[in-house]
Structures are given as structure tokens and as C-alpha cells.
Write a structure and sequence with these properties.
about 725 residues, alpha+beta, ten-stranded antiparallel sheet, eight-stranded parallel beta barrel, 12 helices, about 30% strand
Length: about 725
């Protein structure tokens, strides 16, 4: 059992592999946070709560000026009764006030973990993998019951948290804010790490010291967004890639979110993560329930690298599902940057023929195969075959690709509709909009209202019709704009601020139906590239298109930042043409290949225009990748040199048994008087001997890690790369 309850002290101790999380009930039922960090055998209160009088921190009740919620570290803080910091939740009662006062009522501890209604969440395959604590808090005046859910995974340093609201009163309540987790740290001696970005520049790494007041990241775009990722980490001041304490927080959700970090007047730190409260208001009828998404909290005392590898292993085992969870992913060619909308059946088959000759395993037909889609100005929602481009039908094309020895994949954008489409002309009310307001377009499209069951049913029907007829092995599920004029003609006025969340729940519902109906299809999520790279998507689709920017140099930072949280096997990474279509940079095919081989390798260029020399390079890349694919996609990942800190990038992959590793090194720009370069490896068996593949050279694991391997001086010029493959001797 990973959860221990001391009834006399009213203290709960959650213990994972090497982490402890301790909370307790104090005074008249307040839930206090006591400790979160490296695992301890038991908590006896050596650094327990301190109660002293604080000026301008009013006391709870009368007679004891030392007890104020303003200075109490709390588990799920509330508004209105002496705590002036940001609350984790806020509820409006029938009298119009927003004061609440949750007190401990009961708890239960059980083996295993339960799913969250309508939401993606981490899971266990057997009850022995985890233990769950549910603490019931009650506000008797409101008739509100909140069940705080904690799950500790005993073989991991992972704790998940969420909350469920139940209205047991006679009047409806309005939930104005409902965070999934709140943690009060006793000091503020941390740096905050976040992953901001933009389209084509996702998940850049920023680290800055905490300061007094509020720091936050969020999205109000209706999606988790390119601009911010639903992840933050607190790092000890001296924490590095390989050492020091790190606390990671990641929200399993794909819509509007907020993660805030507040340092108060007493230099304590409060981290809150969950649904964004802006433009959110949920009417909770009498007897109804509301479930928040889940936060995955990871503790590491071995730096950012230790945190990342825990997230990677944990998500692969307890978040990603389905046939492809543990299967290596195919090497594909996508026609998008090769042809864009201008393709014929013959052109697609020509690309497939070259791809098959070079060793590729999957041909993906991207945007433009349906309706009258010859540009991005029409036909989204009309999911029937474009007979002008494919006169013999989509099924015939897929079968011809299959006959070449390749699988067939297809692009969809199910959540969107073009104004110039039969679907929109039939049902203009089916888009997200506000009556009497203009409808903003982006990429010449509107967003279908997935909060409506009739919309979900029709889009599901159209997708199923295609997928049942055509032998599709892979689906790229795209989403190319964010939400504006958020409203629904289907819901009354007092439900309009629920639409953004209801829409995401509807998206999840359709994804669940489609992916369950077609379990043998490999689904890849996409949102203008990496605009919805979050754990919620990974629950339904085991990989994500990392970014629409395929430039190798840009991808060094994008893939490095993504790797902080998300497993390598979830990252789609393609070799595209040079000069690159997004930034106009020319990089060598070797550079593009090594960057793309650091994820799920694919190609996105016109294979029919490759020279014989280029075909030879591509064929060798594919041969090499097939040899190391298991290692790359499922091995332990180590970041060795950061593209955010200099001109070089290096990373490596090690198998679980430490018998094999593959190392990539990249130099961005040539420099004069270049110093001699070397790379120190990581994660090896220090007592083992490793042979460099293709040579007779043998090195000790300790030597490779502590002395390092030298970078060849022959790497001259911009955008250079080299790789090393070591195996146990």
C-alpha cells in the first residue's frame, strides 16, 4: 500500500518509488499541506506547521490570532475566509456570494485508480500499480461536496490529482473556477520553467527566478495552443539537467488552461493548475456533478533529465493506449510539402513507388482529397472523395499503394467546416458562433460546435463511412484554428460560458468513438503542427505532429523542448526539402536526417525529384533507422548539450539494459578558431565496455561518460552533424 493514514494525527502519507507527499487535517477540518519531496520513511513533524500571529492576516473565528488561512499551506484553498492568495476554486451560491468554506468530512483509500467521466486520464492495468486517496470536503451552507482525488504510483515518483464537485443542495450553484491541483510550498527559492512558443516555434524553454506576486502561463484559445503548453516546473536554484530537485506539473487537457505560481508576502509559493477561469462558468444543478481534468505531478532529485525520463516512462505505460502503445511506428512519406493541393492519383502513386524502393512503409495522403478541395478555401466538412483528383476513388488508390507493399494513411480535419461547403450551407447553425455577431474566419474556416450531439454524430458518421470503405492504416487528425465568438445556438444563455469546455469534451467523445471503432489504425494528432501537443491528445492518439516547421535547425529547439515532458515515440519528425518551406534555410540531407531520426522518422518532400546520390543517402538513413528504431522510440533519452545555451546540440538514446546507445551531435554555425569539441555521454553502465559500431574501438562506459567522445575536426561549415552507435562488448 502506497498510502498511509495516521488516525491519531489525522495525517495522510502518499509514498511512491522515491517521493513522499504528506497532508493532514488541522483544527476544525481544514486540509493542510505538510510535505512534498524526496521519499521519507515517515513524517513525524520535524518541519511541521507553525502557528504565529501575522499582522493583516485575520484569524479564522474568534479567540486565536495565530490561526489564519492566509498563512496556512493548504491543499485546496478557497476564497472569502481569511486567505487572500489565489484560490483553487470559486463557487457562487444562490444568494450571489462567492464565499465558501470546505471542511474535511471523510476519506477512503483503495487500490488501483478509477477513470474520470468524459475526460482522458492516466490509468492502471492492475490495481497493484497504484493506490488512490479520495478526501471528501463539505461546505454545509452551500450544500457542496468536493472529492479531492490523489493517486500515487508506487513504482514511479508520480502523483496525480483532480477534483469532483457535487451539488447536494436544493439550489443550483455556479462554478466560477475549478482547478485540478494546488500545492503550497514552504519557501520560494525556485526557478520557474515553462514552454512558450508560437506556430512553427513551439515549446521553447524559458527559465526564470520566482518573484513576489503572480507568474502564470495559460491559454484562452480553446486549445492548449502553440503559445503555451499545459506544463510548468519548479526547479531548485541549483538544479541542472542532471542534478537537483525538480517538480513538474502537467495537465491532461486540450482546452483552455491556466497554471499560476504565486509567491506571497511570507515568501511561500502556491502552484495552481487546471481549467482557465476566464470566460468559464458552469451551472451545477442540484444533484449534478462536475469533474476537473487531471494533473500529473512528477518529482525528481536528479534534475530535469530525471523528471523527463519519468514522464516518458509513465506516459508510455499509463497514458498512451491501444495497439500501437508498445509497437514501433512506421517510416512514412507525406505528400503535403511535395504537392500541397495540386496532386493527381498518378503523382501520389509515383511518390509511393519511390518511397517503397527506398524502404518507406507508409504513404500518407494529406489535405485536398475530398469535396472540391483545391485550396484551403472550401470543402471542410464534406468528407467524400474529390472525383476530379481521384477519378478511380480513394479505395482504389489505397489498394494500389498497398499492392506496392506500403500502408496507406489519410488526413482529416473533423472539427472544422468551410463556409464554402455543402455541410455549412445545410447547417450554418452548426458552427461555434454568437448570434448577431460577425463570424471570424481563420484559414478560411469555422469551428464546428462539438458541444452538440447532433454535430458529433454526423461528423462521426462521415468519418466512419470513409474508414470502413478504405483500407486506411494511419489517420492524421488536424485542427487548424482556435476558437472565437465562443457560443452555441444549442444551449440557453445561462450555459454559454460552458461552451469552450463542453466543446473539448465533445472532441474527446468523438475521438473516443473513432479510435475505439478502428483500433488497428495509427492515429496522429495535429493542430497546425504542435498546437495541441498535450497529454489529453496522447490518451486518444499515441503520437503528435510536433511542428509544421520542418527546418532541421528550428527542430533542434522544438524537439528538445518537447522532450522535457513528452516521450520521443510521440513526436512525428520529417525530412523535408531544402531550402526549407517555412524558414528558407538550406541544410544538408544528413543534418535533416539526423534530426528527423531523433523522433518518429518520416519524409515530406517530392521523392520523385531526388537525385541518385540523394536517394542513396535517404535509403541509408532508413536502413539505419530500422536498426535503431526500437532504441530511439522506446529507449531512455538523455539531453547532453542544449540548443538554448550555445551553438551545439547533442542528445542520446540508451536501452533499458544499458547494452546499446545512439548519440547525435549537431553544430549549427561554423565559427573561426573553433575549440576542440567533445561530448560526455550519460546513462551507461560505468563498469561495462562498449564498442563503437563500424570500428574496432572499445571504450569503458565510465570513460565515455566522464572523459567523453571527441567530435571530429572534419566537421567544417554550417549545419554539421555526426552520430555514434555503441554496443556492449
Amino acid at each position: 500500500m502506497g498510502i498511509f493514514y495516521d488516525e491519531a494525527q489525522r495525517v495522510f502519507h502518499l509514498r511512491g518509488k522515491d517521493v513522499s507527499y504528506v497532508l493532514g487535517v488541522v483544527r476544525e477540518g481544514y486540509l493542510a499541506h505538510l510535505y512534498y519531496g524526496k521519499g521519507i520513511r515517515e513524517f513525524a513533524g520535524s518541519n511541521g506547521l507553525t502557528f504565529i500571529k501575522r499582522d493583516f492576516s485575520p484569524s479564522v473565528g474568534i479567540g486565536d490570532e495565530t490561526f489564519s488561512l492566509d498563512s496556512l499551506p493548504q491543499e485546496y484553498p478557497q476564497y472569502g475566509n481569511t486567505d487572500f492568495r489565489k484560490p483553487a476554486y470559486q463557487v457562487k451560491g444562490a444568494d450571489g456570494t462567492t464565499i465558501s468554506d470546505l471542511r474535511y468530512d471523510s476519506h477512503r483509500i483503495f487500490a488501483g485508480k478509477v477513470g474520470l467521466d468524459g475526460l482522458p486520464a492516466t490509468y492502471v492495468e492492475r490495481d497493484g500499480d497504484a493506490d488512490t486517496l479520495e478526501i471528501t470536503m463539505v461546505d454545509a451552507v452551500l450544500g457542496l461536496r468536493v472529492i479531492l482525488q490523489y493517486t500515487v504510483f508506487e513504482a514511479e515518483n508520480v502523483i496525480t490529482r483532480s477534483a469532483r464537485f457535487v451539488n447536494e443542495g436544493q439550489e443550483a450553484l455556479q462554478i466560477m473556477k475549478a482547478a485540478s491541483a494546488s500545492v503550497d510550498f514552504k519557501d520560494s527559492d525556485y526557478d520557474l520553467l515553462t514552454l512558450p512558443g508560437a506556430w512553427g516555434n513551439e515549446r521553447q524553454v524559458e527559465r526564470a527566478p520566482l518573484r513576489h506576486g503572480m507568474q502564470s502561463v495559460d491559454s484562452v484559445r480553446g486549445g492548449s495552443s502553440h503559445q503555451q503548453n499545459p506544463f510548468v516546473a519548479l526547479l531548485g536554484k541549483h538544479a541542472t539537467e542532471d542534478a537537483g530537485e525538480v517538480y513538474g506539473f502537467n495537465l491532461v487537457y486540450s482546452g483552455n488552461f491556466e497554471a499560476s505560481v504565486e509567491v506571497d508576502q511570507f515568501a511561500t509559493t502556491r502552484v495552481i493548475m487546471g481549467l482557465h477561469s476566464f470566460n468559464f462558468d458552469w451551472k451545477l444543478e442540484s444533484g449534478a456533478e462536475f469533474q476537473t481534468p487531471e494533473v500529473v505531478m512528477v518529482y525528481s532529485d536528479t534534475g530535469l533529465g530525471g523528471m523527463s525520463r519519468q514522464y516518458h516512462r509513465f506516459y508510455q505505460k499509463h497514458l498512451v493506449r491501444g495497439v500501437y502503445r508498445d509497437q514501433t511506428r512506421p517510416i512514412l512519406v507525406n505528400n503535403w510539402e511535395a504537392t500541397y493541393f495540386n496532386f493527381t492519383e498518378e503523382k501520389i502513386l509515383d511518390i509511393a513507388k519511390v518511397g517503397e524502393k527506398l524502404g518507406m512503409e507508409l504513404l500518407v495522403l494529406d489535405d485536398g482529397w475530398f469535396g472540391k478541395r483545391n485550396s484551403d478555401k472550401s470543402s471542410l466538412g464534406d468528407w467524400f472523395v474529390n472525383a476530379e483528383k481521384l477519378p478511380n476513388g480513394l479505395k482504389n488508390l489505397a489498394e494500389n499503394v498497398n499492392n506496392l507493399g506500403m500502408k496507406f494513411g489519410l488526413w482529416f480535419e473533423p472539427e472544422m467546416v468551410s463556409v464554402d461547403s455543402d455541410l455549412y450551407r445545410e447547417h450554418p447553425e452548426w458552427c461555434i458562433h454568437v448570434p448577431n455577431r460577425a463570424k471570424s474566419e481563420s484559414r478560411n474556416q469555422l469551428v464546428l460546435d462539438f458541444s452538440r450531439e447532433d454535430v458529433r454524430a454526423e461528423i462521426t458518421r462521415r468519418m466512419v463511412a470513409i474508414l470502413e470503405e478504405v483500407p486506411v492504416s494511419y489517420v492524421k487528425w488536424d485542427m487548424n484554428r482556435h476558437l472565437t465568438e465562443v457560443g452555441s445556438a444549442h444551449f440557453p444563455s445561462d450555459r454559454q460560458q460552458e461552451i469552450a469546455h463542453r466543446h473539448i469534451l465533445g472532441v474527446y467523445s468523438v475521438m473516443d468513438v473513432i479510435t475505439t471503432r478502428f483500433p488497428d489504425i495509427l492515429f496522429e494528432s495535429c493542430s497546425g503542427g504542435g498546437g495541441r501537443f498535450d497529454p489529453g491528445m496522447l490518451y486518444y492518439m499515441p503520437q503528435t505532429w510536433t511542428s509544421d516547421n520542418t527546418d532541421a535547425v528550428s527542430r533542434l529547439k522544438i524537439q528538445y523542448g518537447t522532450s522535457l515532458v513528452y516521450p520521443i515515440v510521440t513526436m512525428g519528425s520529417h525530412v523535408s526539402s531544402a531550402p526549407n518551406h517555412q524558414v528558407g534555410r538550406f541544410t544538408s540531407l544528413e543534418m535533416r536526417g539526423n534530426v528527423a531520426m531523433s523522433g518518429n522518422l518520416g519524409y515530406e518532400l517530392d521523392l520523385t525529384t531526388l537525385t541518385d546520390a540523394e536517394q542513396k543517402i535517404v535509403k541509408q538513413q532508413i536502413t539505419t533507422y530500422k536498426e535503431i528504431r526500437q532504441l530511439i522510440q522506446f529507449g531512455d533519452f538523455y539531453r547532453l548539450k542544449s540548443p538554448f545555451e550555445g551553438n551545439e546540440t547533442a542528445w542520446m538514446f540508451v536501452d533499458e539494459a544499458k547494452t546499446e546507445c545512439y548519440v547525435f551531435y549537431f553544430q549549427v554555425l561554423a565559427t573561426p578558431a573553433r575549440p576542440l569539441q567533445f561530448v560526455k555521454l550519460a546513462g551507461l553502465n560505468v563498469a561495462a565496455q562498449y564498442q563503437l559500431r563500424g570500428t574496432e574501438q572499445i571504450f569503458g562506459g565510465d570513460e565515455l561518460m566522464y572523459a567523453g567522445i571527441k567530435v571530429p575536426t572534419a566537421l567544417i561549415g554550417d549545419f554539421q552533424t555526426v552520430s555514434w552507435h555503441f554496443q556492449l562488448k
